[in-house]
Amino acid sequence: MVATIRYEDIVKVPKALLHDHLDGGLRPATIVELAAEVGHELPNTDPEALGRWFVEAADSGSLERYLETFAHTVAVMQTAPALRRVARECALDLATDGVVYAEVRFAPEQHLERDLTLDEVVEAVLAGFAEGSALAAEAGTPIRVGTLLTAMRHAARSQEIAELAVRHRDAGVVGFDIAGAEAGFPPTRHLDAFEYLQRENFHFTIHAGEAFGLPSIWQAIQWCGADRLGHGVRIVDDITPGPEPTLGRLAAYVRDKRIPLELCPSSNVQTGAAPSIAEHPIGLLRDLRFRVTVNTDNRLMSGTSMSREMALLVEAFGYGWRELQWFTINAMKSAFIPFDQRLRIIDEVIKPAYAKLLP
């Protein structure tokens, strides 16, 4: 089975992506051009060399060091035209990789250095996604992009960003998120925002269980009411390995409730959340039938794509088309768009494509 799955074939099959950061997926050439326009100094102005620098700088085993690389991408995303361009190119790049549905997140509060308002930031990004999606459809690679607005967990603007997300919910914003260093900044600091979102019947995910362990996951679910877990990889700390693994109370709850895990294999290895792709908990979690999804996190910093992530799993775990379809359908089931729209993509796009490949 494994020998028959080629990378170029993985690119062609439809994929769904739930965890991708806009400021972590810029084209190196775009960064160079935008940096020149605003006078931002880069580590290297050769696009190819700059791309390598991002991967090497992020490949440190430290989440904090990993996050430092974003200083350069965020610096060039401070004007409406720049945001619009980055979003347009993001949609096109994902579509070219065979992604048919994507939820891309970004933190509006990080794009205010040149006097844009929060609403103007969101409007520029949404316009870019619309342009990119239209161009992708014209090229024969249709994609739907939903936007998640992220609040930084070390800041104090989560309520404001939550209200911003709800304000744009009918224009393409499908959910809310908090991100940033987990240690010392628990999700419970933002309870007001999460309670507001629940009152508004709005979806949200929380970065939890990546750099910090089970308490982060427990708080995200039981205190804050997260619909999904951003990463959530440390849920394995509540699983006793063995011929018949034993689930602790929290792990069992996550599995029983079908809470989606937004796993990002390459990124998890880079930040030290997993020792290697071959030893990534995704294998165990998939075997135990958790609601596992495969994601890119930051395509620039990880030098990756959805197709590459799936190819790495095929190589590491011997997965075939059936497993790749399972991951893809899991993601679509867990998307933040209406149920009937999720079902339509599963039944009309994903299943027919994989049916041609399954024995």
TrEMBL record:
Pfam families: A_deaminase. Residues 14-351 form the Adenosine deaminase domain. HAMAP family: A_deaminase. Catalyzes the hydrolytic deamination of adenosine and 2-deoxyadenosine. This is Adenosine deaminase. Belongs to the metallo-dependent hydrolases superfamily. Adenosine and AMP deaminases family. Adenosine deaminase subfamily. The record marks 231 as: Important for catalytic activity. The keyword Lipid biosynthesis does not apply. The gene is add. GO terms for biological process: adenosine catabolic process; hypoxanthine salvage; inosine biosynthetic process; nucleotide metabolic process; purine ribonucleoside monophosphate biosynthetic process. Zn(2+) binds at residues 19, 21, 207, 297. The active site is at residue 210.
